[in-house]
Design brief:
The complex is a heterodimer.
Chain A (H helix, E strand, L loop, with lengths): L12 H27 L7 H29 L9 H23 L4 H10 L1 H18 L3 H7 L1 H7 L2 H15 L7 H14 L1 H17 L1
Helix pairs in contact in A: 1-2, 1-3, 2-3, 2-8, 2-9, 3-5, 4-5, 5-8, 8-9
Chain B lengths: L18 H14 L4 H5 L39 H4 L14 H5 L9 E6 L5 E4 H6 L4 E8 L4 E11 H8 L7 E6 L7 H4 L1 H4 L7 E5 H5 L4 E6 L2 E2 L9 E3 L12 E7 L6 H5 L23 E4 L10 E3 L23
Parallel strand pairs in B: 1-10, 4-11
Antiparallel strand pairs in B: 1-2, 3-4, 4-7, 5-6, 5-10, 7-8, 7-9, 11-12
Classes of the chains: A mainly alpha, B alpha+beta.
The complex binds protoporphyrin IX containing FE.
Subunit structure (chain B): Heterodimer of a catalytic subunit (MsrP) and a heme-binding subunit (MsrQ).
Cofactor (chain B): Mo-molybdopterin
Protein name (chain B): Protein-methionine-sulfoxide reductase catalytic subunit MsrP
């Protein structure tokens, strides 16, 4: 891959910590603000929709940002960027969980039979639920000790993040009444990110294919 | 009688955050929550950022004189004006529910012409003044149920469509009524750009059977909350059919045509398996994306308001049931 800079950028420990603190502050602060405005009826006409919308779009934004970190780190090059990837990924998961929680608590107001039947019967929700399950698995195995213990299996598991992103985008597109809306741009970005990793992805697919042939 | 909706807190309209604060908050949330890609494309919304002073002023509304609500009105808690006028599906002005309030303010509603023609003895042309003066106005407080499983209670001001149709004298061959929204891409950014308008073929068209159109509940609304309609709610004149999903209640009408064939309708054309011609509110027929068994009533109150209520057949307007006697409403959704 071509590089932009001749020498890698470095980020010393203190600014690194500050950046992390900033990410925490923004990501948590925005959630707190949303709930505060929502509870006080200051989130537009329908606070429930606004909350679902903000948490959903930010779950996707953060997911796509986390996927752009490693290509960016290589291309600049700026290896220290990689130190923020787990944090961003975990916040994507957090937003997705809050999104799901908002759906249960405020949209369907804890009508559990309705929640269950919606997950099973509405394809766009089934798909969102699948994405959330994948993200949960990834979040649960995200700590360094678990990563060490899992060895190469960890990478195989975490490759599922691409499936999660595609499922989440499908969910997004399906949740709207017509096709020609914002998700189109997200699909273009996702296609770009997948294209950057085409070698790796093709390699995974081919390996699977060969294994099946050999059997 | 439909079940009366009781919000957990009782507030009057004055207790509600005023509209300006709403819009400001909404701007902040929008700016932080990703500026919609469609608004990036739209010329009119390039300055959509939270420090933007709201330079697109809301349209001025004129007070109307009208009769007090009669027997067709509900006494349920009304949805505050700030919400009724800031949460709209009017794709001609963008697909986001806050887009119409932001982009429709400049819509020219005078001069205006509404034509009534087709299979009628006496074709009519109403100008802007006729709309509010030719027929006596009355207030009708109706429930409005959106296909997206939310609902509002709105005090419309208007007159019965039947009165207008009688003045035009339908021929005996007329069986259906076709409605058409203004087509003017210069004023309606959603008609000028596929992304702004959600890829719909404009103009927006709707239709009713003649007997549905003649039903006394079917209203031509020219105002809400005592004044003329804000553009985002379909100024200067719109249809309101309270027992059908909201998309039937077509906005900013320029033409009403009587025909002998069932007219095409916009959402049915776009996704026939999801939106039927009839689109009667029916809790037993689910949409692929929304169970229609219940709905969230939008009134005052934040996240913690318990506002989920059962959806009633015909949105609680059971007096229209005879119109559909013997019809299988699962098939004719
Ligand atoms: C069980 C899991 C999930 C449920 C029940 C769920 C539920 C919903 C619902 C009901 C909506 C529609 C809101 C509306 O009516 O406008 C929605 C929209 C959305 N969801 Fe989810 N979702 C789930 C998982 C996810 C995940 C994992 C993501 C992203 C990583 C996500 C991202 C989005 C986005 C971006 C939207 C569109 C927001 C908008 O434009 O309003 N969802 N979701």
């Amino acid at each position: 891959m071509n590089r932009l800079l001749s020498r890698p950028l470095r980020l010393p420990a203190t600014p690194r910590r500050l950046t992390k603190a900033g990410i925490h502050l923004l990501a948590t602060g925005y959630l707190v603000a949303l709930f505060y405005w929502g509870a006080t009826d200051n989130l537009g006409a329908d606070p429930v929709k606004a909350l679902l919308h903000s948490t959903g779009t930010w779950a996707i934004n953060l997911l796509l940002i986390s996927l752009s970190i490693s290509p960016l780190a290589k291309w600049l090059p700026f290896p220290d960027l990689m130190r923020f990837r787990r944090l961003v990924g975990l916040y994507s998961f957090t937003y997705a969980m809050v999104h799901f929680f908002s759906f249960c608590a405020f949209e369907l107001q804890f009508d559990w039979t309705l929640i269950a039947s919606e997950i099973v019967e509405r394809p766009y929700i089934t798909v969102g639920f699948a994405a959330l399950l994948i993200l949960s698995l990834l979040a649960a195995t995200s700590t360094t000790p678990i990563q060490r213990r899992m060895g190469p299996a960890w990478q195989r598991l975490h490759n599922w993040v691409y499936a999660a992103a595609l499922l989440a985008l499908l969910h997004y597109t399906w949740s709207l009444k017509t096709v020609w809306e914002e998700p189109v741009f997200y699909w273009l970005i996702a296609a770009g990110l997948l294209y950057l990793r085409r070698d790796k992805l093709l390699w995974v697919v081919r390996k699977k294919f060969k294994k099946n042939l050999a059997r | 009688m439909p079940k009366v909706f009781k919000p957990s807190v009782k507030l009057t309209d004055n207790d509600v955050t005023d509209e300006r604060i709403y819009r400001e908050r909404r701007q902040i949330v929008k700016a932080m929550g990703f500026v919609g890609a469609s608004s990036l494309l739209a010329k009119s919304a390039t300055a959509d950022w939270f420090w933007e002073d709201d330079d697109k002023k809301a349209a001025a509304r004129r007070p109307l004189s009208f009769q007090e609500p009669g027997k067709y009105s509900t006494s349920e808690t009304r949805t505050p004006f700030a919400k009724v006028s800031s949460y709209n599906n009017f794709y001609e002005f963008g697909t986001d529910k806050s887009d119409p309030a932001e982009n429709a303010g400049q819509l020219q509603t005078s001069p205006w012409t509404l034509r009534v023609d087709g299979l009628v003895e006496n074709p009519l042309k109403l100008d802007a003044d006729d709309l509010t003066e030719r027929f006596p106005l009355e207030e009708r407080i109706y429930r409005l149920r959106c296909v997206e499983a939310w609902s509002m209670v709105i005090p419309w001001v208007g007159f019965e469509l039947a009165a207008l149709l009688r003045a035009a004298k339908p021929l005996s061959s007329a069986k259906y009524v076709a409605f058409e929204t203004l087509y003017d891409p210069k004023q309606m950014p959603g008609q000028a750009s596929r992304f702004m308008g959600g890829g719909i073929d404009y103009p927006y068209v709707e239709g009713l059977r003649l007997d549905e159109a003649m039903h006394p509940l079917t209203l031509m609304a020219v105002g809400l909350y005592g004044k003329t309609l804000p553009p985002q709610n379909g100024a200067p004149i719109r249809l309101v059919v309270p027992w059908k999903y909201g998309f039937k209640s077509i906005k900013s009408l320029v033409r009403i045509r009587l025909t002998d064939k069932r007219p095409p309708t916009t959402w049915n054309r776009l996704a026939p398996q999801e939106y039927g011609f009839y689109a009667n509110v029916n809790p037993d027929v689910a949409h692929p994306r929304w169970s229609q068994a219940s709905e969230r009533r939008i009134t005052t109150g934040g996240l913690f308001t318990r506002n989920r209520i059962e959806t009633e057949m015909f949105n609680g307007y059971s007096e229209v049931a005879p119109l559909y006697q013997g019809m299988n409403l699962t098939k004719w959704y």
